[in-house]
Design goal:
The chain has eleven helices and 20 strands. It is α+β, with helices and mostly antiparallel strands and 550 residues long. It folds into two domains: 235 residues, Beta-galactosidase, Chain A, domain 5; 200 residues, no CATH class. The strands form four sheets. The chain has a nine-stranded antiparallel sheet with strand order 8-9-10-11-20-17-16-13-14, covered by helices on one side. A five-stranded antiparallel sheet has the order 7-12-19-18-15, with no helix packed on it. A four-stranded antiparallel sheet has the order 1-2-3-6, with no helix packed on it. It is elongated and about 100 Å long.
Length: 550
Amino acid sequence: MSEPRIERQDPSDTRRLFAAMFLSLAIYSGYVWWKGPPPPAPEAEPAPVPAAASAAPAVPEVTAPVRTIDVAMCGAVGTVTTDGGVLRGVTLPDFPGHYRVSPLWSWALGLVTGASSFPWLPYTQIEPVASVLTPGAAALAVGSGPLTGVAPRMEAHQAAGEALSLRGVTRDGVEVVTVWNPAGDPCVTTVDVVWTNRGTAAFQGDLWVGLHDALPEGAAYGQAPFPIALVDEALDYPKLKNLADAPEPSEGPVSWFAVADRHFGLFVLPHSPTEGGLQFSRRGTDDAPVYGAHWVHAASLAPGERYAHSFRVHAGPLNEESLAVVDPSLTDAVDYGWMAAFSGPMLWALHLVHGAVGGWGWSIVWLTVAVKLLLFPVIHSGMKSSMKMAAIQPKMQELREQLKDDPEEMNRQIMALFRDSGANPLGGCLPLLLQIPVFASLYGVLLTSADLYNAPFFYLLDLSSPDPYGVLPLATIGLMWVQQQMMPMGNMDPAQQQILKFMPIIFGLFFFTAPSGLGVYMLVNIALSIVQQWMIRRQFPTQTPAVTPV
């Protein structure tokens, strides 16, 4: 690439340029002397200030250095910064931190692909104590105007043993004063907020309180704070991918809004649910976004006019009993999923057994035994019916061959065969159907209940997370195979036989990612089913069941 060429200027050109400039200046000066000075221009009237925005604030914005103040909130501790007056880094010292589980098979695969360049650690504690808000959170941020605006710089005042007071001025000329009162009983901290229009014109716009937190990259399901709210007496969650474009409104009275994972949360309860609305929103930058919600109050404030609202703040575990003491509506945050009607009784039963035996692992074992004993008559009847079905299989096959051209007569004779032998084709399915609610409700409790959070059992450090060693899934697959060998397949359709052969593997793979407490339940349940099946077979030595309930 050639370098740019620089042309040298001729000195005669410079002299001609200065001569032209001097001649122009002389002509302009002569014209001004001959014409005289121009008359003074009239003073322009000031432009009107729109009603939607205030004039410059009558009080200066806070420019004090940024400070951080530690706050205690009844079992929780956090930090308030004067840079926006936001709360962040809230932890629960009485609860240990989450475990990050590294399954052995995942680590071994990483050795092949090069992703595992570190020694295998089945459990890694992410932080020493449980976290409710990350250090990058922006909770209880207070401001005015657009939701995309930033909370103002604040100045803090706090005397010994007194409430913490923060004061700032927004860009709209609205003074914001936030008072953090000491935590009381029940376990809540009251935050009083006052917005005052310090401008010289009316303010019309939104007054807001935000609650946002980051979603750590790679966090396991439920182990990162997620926005949630109770609006119009119904739980509401945002679609995070849509929040990058615009806030997502949630219509109705706002009972509370929060950020919570599956075990802990921080809740904000407005004093009057009907005075404001809720909009799920995203804040921060593309590199460091935070997700949450804004409580919004549309206001019209004349100069000097103010608006005040109080909020109750609670941080703690998602325990229905403790949440109900703070406010009964908070119990809706404990979401067990589609089997919620059964999960409550399941947790109650686990507590009952736990009080007698101690240890949540042993509680699951003995609860499994209790369920098996409770369903013993139904299971026993179902197994007997299965054995009778196995005994009449040859006769049924014979009828199908003889009457294949007369389906109506074939069905009539098969039904008569069922009646005469006492066999019930659905008898073996009923015990399995009765155990589905037990299985699903225990799954919901293990995923959600703070009571079973980080509950150890033998080599397992947390029953609510998967087994990193793979012992429980492999043992479950092995016992299902043993159970399958006790089932006759000679009279079954070949397609059914192939499906049954793969069932232990297909079903067992689920437990590699399921909570290990669920694996404990299934392992004990299958072991008891094998024992029960063996006992039934001793009573009917010449017959074996065609279908065996799990």
